[in-house]
Amino acid sequence: MNVIQESMKDIRASEELKKNTLYYLEKQKKRARPRMAWRYAAIAACLFLFLTVGGYRLYARPVSYISIDVNPSIELGVNRFGKVVSTDAYNADGQNILNHIKLKNMSYSQAIDKLLQSEDYAVYLTEGSHLVFTVISDKSDIIMQEINKDELAREYQVSTYTSDMTCREEAHEYEMSFGKYRACQELTQYDETVSIEDCHGMTMGEICDNIKTCKRYRHGRSENSSSEEGTSENDSSGNDGGQCKGKGRHHRRHHGNGN
Amino acid sequence: MKSDEDLSRAMEAYADMVRRICFVHLKNKYDTEDIFQNVYLKYLLHEKTFESNEHEKAWFARVTINACKDQLRYLSRRKWVPLDVMEDEGEVISGARSEVLETVLKLPEKYRNVIYLYYYEEYSAVEIAKILGRKENTIYTWLMRAKEMLRGKLGGEWA
Description:
The structure holds 2 protein chains of 2 kinds.
Chain A: H1 3-8, H2 15-60, E1 62-69, E2 73-79, E3 84-89, H3 92-100, H4 108-117, H5 119-122, E4 132-136, H6 140-149, H7 151-155, E5 159-162, H8 165-173, H9 178-190, H10 196-199, H11 204-224, E6 251-254
Parallel strand pairs in A: 4-5
Antiparallel strand pairs in A: 1-2, 1-4, 2-3, 5-6
Helix pairs in contact in A: 8-9, 9-11
Chain B: H1 4-25, H2 29-45, H3 53-77, H4 97-106, H5 109-120, H6 125-132, H7 136-154
């Protein structure tokens, strides 16, 4: 044993010191455990809340709109998962339908089927009526295809059109669904004596009939004058919807087999 | 987190060493208690496993030395000292041994560390270099100077 070892051999940790230290550590452990547990619980709760709110916002946000007009004018908001997340009526008949039929949280094709099958809606689907679907979407092709494939819709000889958000905003200024607004604009193009306000009182059947009459009249006139700008029966000059103030323009895409 | 068995084993195995390192650096039992709590709390929360008992012991030596350094730094910043803390640790030092100890305690801090690790724990200079995180040559120099100082004060027969 060297001198240093000799000199320090009596310096030892007392039992009291050891006991105090162990007691202190025991206290720390007890305190640390619930603190960690709380922390994990808080993190989990935050994450849950975040995902729920985020998920809900993602779910509840419509990315596409489908306007369904006969006389009742109804707009469906469709989210990115193809589910109906909002329903709005733009006239009394439409409101009446929505009061009776719940269309939210089902896929849009299911919602359309349910609507067409319902007795409340069938009242409006008479001989002279006209069932028109107008779609605003990045994937409007797919949605229109779905609608045209739908057997019930085929029975009622639907027409499908596309529109855009600018027209939708304008339509809502006139308190109209954008589907009806599109048709009104088409009519005003052919018949300058009719204003958008006049269309409020008309059903889609009446508007479509008027358009048809105007087209036939024009067609006949242009044939008589053997003009070059003749338009075919199936499709007009391609600008059949008129233009909204914004950048958008209506495009006619498909006409049901009845026309 | 370490188990209770680990903890009591480490307490039995290293408490004396921790106590002695504290003795070399600190003046009173309250600071020593603080160091014990610090060091063993670090051990409790130490997630990695030790390769061997030697490795574990070296870990304790290093952590204790660092804790003492931190404590001294903290004490030097403190503007006041409670009266009851001022009592010395004099009672453990007695007889002929006290002369050696007193001399060791008067050495600068770095020399105290190497003298303790080299003579008491009988670590080699290479091992001390690892524990203190210094170059081997630095340790050799420190050891040499520390020995010279002790020799000067305690007489030629020493070490």
